[in-house]
Amino acid sequence: MATTYQLVDRTLSDVRGRSKRRAGSFTIPAIDSAMSTPKSFFATLLERPEPLSPLARYTCYNGVLYMALGAGMYLGPPSILSVVTGTAPEALGSVRLSGMSMGIIGWFYFMGGRTGRDSFGLSTVVDRAAVPFLLGALVLTGQVPLQLVAGVAVLDPLLAVGAYLIWRRSTRAEG
Asked: Cα Rg for the chain, rounded, in angstroms?
């Protein structure tokens, strides 16, 4: 149930300095108790339009890939992570931090793809195109080992090209 409040005897001045009395009202909607329940939260979270565009599906699949790679980096055994990433066992915290970040990015890609908006899929093309330059600067300044970022520096732009080509193909088919 909404509550309406009345504003009366409010004095306003116009451009010429004359005073005017105005009355007005505003409404504050009642808080729906159903919106605070976990069922409603998760039902809203899991909504998606039908059918998803090819680019939206591709973005979802990329999100799943990123979450899987991130989970592997975060949960992987130290001996394997040291060999694969070229980092010392005592520096594996940064690898796990990278895995956590990749997993979160994957979650956002997955959920963004589920919105069905091609604008989200195209925004991933832009950020992925910047990745090799940003990671290359870190490698060139010696801040991260090449082994740690080489896969992402190559994979991200390739996935960006894939997203762009899927979008181009679907827009040509529509128009």
From this structure: 25
Q: Is residue 19 part of a domain?
A: yes
Residue 44: inside a domain, yes or no? no
Is there a contact between 59 and 125 (Cβ–Cβ < 8 Å)? no
Tokens of 159: 């996935």
Q: Under a CB-based contact definition with an 8 Å cutoff, are residues 137 and 112 in contact?
A: no
Residue 43 included in any domain: no
In a domain, 98, yes or no: yes
pTM for this entry:
0.73
Alpha carbon distances (Å) from 88 to 8, 85, 138, 147: 71, 9, 18, 12
Q: How far is CA 116 from CA 9, 65, 83, 150, 160, in A?
A: 49, 18, 39, 31, 17
Mean pLDDT, 10 residues at a time, the chain of 175 residues: 52 54 57 58 82 94 97 93 83 90 96 93 94 95 89 94 95 83
Domain of residue 130, residue span: 52-174
* pLDDT at position 44: 82
Q: How far is CA 119 from CA 53, 116, 159, 163, in A?
A: 11, 9, 16, 11
